[in-house]
Amino acid sequence: MFMPEGDLAAAAEGVARALELLVSAPSVRAVFEEVGRWTARVLAADHCSISWKSPDGTLHTFATAGLSEEAASAYAALWMGAIQAVPGVAQPRLVEDLGADALLEGEPSLRERLGMRSLVALPLAVPEGTRLGALVAWFQAVHVPSPPALRSAGLCATLVSLVLEREHLREEVRRSEQARAKAERAEGLRLSRFQAVTEGFGRALTRNEVARVVLDLGIPALGAMTGLVHLVQPDGQGVELAASVGVAPEVEAALRLLPRQGNMPGYDAARTRQPVWLESREALHARYPDMALGLDSAEACAFLPLLVEGKVLGVLALGFETPRRFTEPEQTSMLGLARQCGLALERSLLYEREHAARLQAEAAGLRMRLLADASALLSRSIEWKETVNGVARLALGIFADWCSVDVSAEGSQARQVTLLHADPARASLTQELSRYRLDLTHFSSIEAVLRTGRSYLEPQLTPERLAKLTGNSRSLQLLKELGAQSFITAPLVARGRTLGAVSFIRGAGKPPYGPEDQALAEELASRAALAMDNARLFEQRREAEEESRQSAARLHLLVQVSQLVAEAGLDLEQVVDVLVRAVTRELGDCCLLQLVSEDGQYLELAAVHHPDAMVRELLEEVVRVRRLRVGEGLQGAAVSTGQTLFLGAMSAAALEGVGPEAAMRPYFVRRGPQDLIAVPLVARGNACGCLLVLRDARGQPYGQDDQVLLESIAGRAALAIEDARLYSAALDSLRLRDDFLSVAGHELKNPLNALQLQLRVLARKAREARLSDSLAERAERVARTGERLGVLIEDLLDVSRITAGQLQLQLGEVDLSALASEGVSRMSEEFVRAGCEVRVEAGQPVVGRWDRLRLEQVVTNLLSNAIKYGRSKPVLVRVEVAPGAARLSVTDQGYGIAPEEQVRIFQRFQRAEATRHIQGLGLGLWICRQIAESHGGTLRVVSEPGKGSTFILELPRPEPGVPSNS
């Protein structure tokens, strides 16, 4: 068929597009689809198929739509098989009629499945001639392509060959990378295993540990299946198996010690100091025909000498599962392992020698250290049992496997037996053996030691001797189970007294005791006995100190109660509450305090305390249910007789009936049996009440010490209660006095006001009538006396108001500067009469919210004091503003006040010593300070004797712009 030039150009274009796709396509099939379409177009074929083999020989086929891939693949396989044996370059195959095709002669079904009439098959091959597959164009009718079309199709076949070659190269690269990665992993694993071997050698200390490292870590690293390590014995007389792996137990037992005769590969390796390589079982039997070895089942063997500086320390034998040729790298690895093993063995030999020398040194110093430790322990111990047990524990595991300690009790023939074992698992056996309280008559060695005071050594304890140590079959069995092969019994002697004996016992597997061990046991026993005797002396001293401590504790409690009562002051309720709390905390579970009523007939509950609030409420209720008379019940009897009374272990059942204590039954039902002690409160020969203390009867009952302590507490409490009662009575008297002063002041004030009015009228008329000067002066004096009497009555009323808390303030805006000036002006006549010059410094208004009348009272009092005590010298009144406050000060140049009196003059009815000759009640300054403090301010004095005084009144005053709290 002739193809026009346009078709050739189109074919070239299609090939170019396929090449572009070849560069960018993600898969082979995408390129084959493009090539298949253009091949069919170039050859004017109905269908096209491409068949190729992958590197693993699998045949793959691509077919255009409408063509069976399975049939096309089968035909391609037939053709590729036919041309496989043809040398040279395969030629295209043109079949005009598939019915006459020789390849399908035996495949009629395939011809039917194909359904085609003719075809053109082009071989796929690389330049080297490797055949990769076939490109087939299928025609439903008879068709013969033109030469140009075949050439164009050849270009497509070449393109497909290039694609397949690229894929083959990619596959080879991938496989080579996988092989390299696998080799790298294998090499890394091998190196890590050798690294583990090196680390294992670094940790191994003994020869057996080195051999174990070789087999456990070295065998896997070398790929061997079995291995044995034989080491030359330290005396050089034999070769002993140190470790094996992969060897049957019976073979291992036979090879424990190698025979010194016979033809053996291991001896050859040791004798020649060269490795023996046996690459197959035939080579093994040919060279060593009579060898019977654990490696006989191996297909290949290697025997490596373990050398250090030319000295053979042993032989390493390796067995491999398959015959093999030992390559130079493998031999190098095995020899390196053997060299490291030899170095590790040399190091282990040095370590074993050093360890043996250290053990000898430790054994030599053991006695000294044991004695030193025992001395340190004994110096710290103050209990004899702790002392003996401590020495026994020090010896356990080091000097003895178990210890038996027999100690004579003080002043008797009885013994206390202590048994300790180094193995905790055998503790139950020692406890059972100690319960038998071994009889001295059977322990003849202990009996002899206690009698003579000399130690006893039994180097080898025979069964016959062991049977004589006890007459009890069970104890004999226990002794056998505990293990007793050798023992030493040493006496515990101190200050000429034999306190007991200590026995050190060793079991099987330990060297028997000798004379040196006996000397050490005697020294240990001597030091333990001295510590035990010291402990006895210390115990006696401690008992004396304990008695002294209890006395000190009782005294401390008395002081504490006295201090608490003193801190409670004269408040009766607080005194009794503090008392019952302190007694409950120190001496019981519960405490009740009852006081004799005013008529002296009954006992009234004053206070009760129990830590549990519900129990406390129950006690209060049951005590009030039954009101006791003096002389009735336990408390009443204690009050009437003045004696302390006890009741021990009182229970609810004992309170059945109608006795006075029956009311307490609910408490005993709830709390159980109780011990009771009732102590009278006696002050100045009279019993004012009773203290009842209860505590659980399961504890220690009340005794003589508790009685003495409680009686002392009760005596102090009675005095405090009596003082509190007297103080309460005094307070009542003072309240009556204040009430009387208040009533009297109000009753006197009305007639006094009338009298003052009449006296003022009389004085005025005397002046107007121009009577004699003496008569007018007397009238004025009587008027002033009335005014003074009015001031005194007002002071007394203020005292009663302040004491009763009824001083009330009427607050309003007050100018303190104006108030001071008005006060000075109002008292100008008094200043003139006293000859005092007065000066006021109040330059600006000082306004605040205060009580005007009360502040006038303060200013008047301060000015009056300046007149009375100023000794006719100038007086300065100053008003000024301070931060957040207003300040008024009155300064005179009078007598002055001593520092120790500056606090006292502000108290009621108190005056300075220097002014005793001046009349007054001593209430003014106290009232003034109370008024100042009721405003939230202060009143103080600054003074020195002979230099006058300055009284300073400070009142709170908000800053400008700050709102007042009033």
Describe the structure.
It is an enzyme of class 2 (transferase). Keywords: Coiled coil, Kinase, Phosphoprotein, Transferase, Two-component regulatory system. Its EC number is 2.7.13.3. It catalyses: ATP + protein L-histidine = ADP + protein N-phospho-L-histidine. This protein is an alpha+beta fold. The chain has five domains: 9-173, Beta-Lactamase, CATH 3.30.450; 204-354, Beta-Lactamase (2-Layer Sandwich), CATH 3.30.450; 383-537, GAF domain (Beta-Lactamase, 2-Layer Sandwich); 569-806, Beta-Lactamase (2-Layer Sandwich); 808-956, 2-Layer Sandwich (Heat Shock Protein 90), CATH 3.30.565.10. It is 51% helix and 20% strand. It is built from 26 helices and 27 strands. The strands form six sheets. A five-stranded antiparallel beta sheet has the order 2-1-5-4-3, sandwiched between helices. Strands 7-6-10-9-8 form a five-stranded antiparallel beta sheet. It is flat, with a radius of gyration of 63 Å. It starts with a helix and ends in a 10-residue tail after the last strand. 34% of the residues are buried.
Provide keyphrases for this structure.
5-stranded antiparallel β-sheet; Beta-Lactamase; alpha+beta; 51% helix
How would you summarize the topology of this molecule?
Elements: H1 5-24, H2 28-42, E1 47-53, E2 59-63, H3 69-84, E3 93-95, H4 108-114, E4 118-125, E5 131-139, H5 147-203, H6 207-222, E6 226-232, E7 239-245, H7 249-254, H8 265-272, E8 276-278, H9 281-287, E9 300-308, E10 311-320, H10 328-380, H11 384-395, E11 402-408, E12 415-421, H12 427-434, H13 444-452, E13 456-458, H14 463-468, H15 473-482, E14 486-494, E15 497-506, H16 515-568, H17 572-587, E16 590-596, E17 603-609, H18 613-625, H19 633-641, E18 645-650, H20 665-671, E19 674-683, E20 686-696, H21 704-768, H22 773-803, E21 811-815, H23 816-826, H24 828-834, E22 838-841, E23 847-851, H25 852-869, E24 875-882, E25 885-892, H26 924-934, E26 938-943, E27 949-956
Parallel strand pairs: 22-24
Antiparallel strand pairs: 1-2, 1-5, 3-4, 4-5, 6-7, 6-10, 8-9, 9-10, 11-12, 11-15, 13-14, 14-15, 16-17, 16-20, 18-19, 19-20, 21-23, 24-25, 25-27, 26-27
Helix pairs in contact: 1-2, 1-5, 2-5, 3-4, 5-6, 5-10, 6-10, 10-11, 10-16, 11-16, 12-15, 16-17, 16-21, 17-21, 21-22, 23-25, 25-26
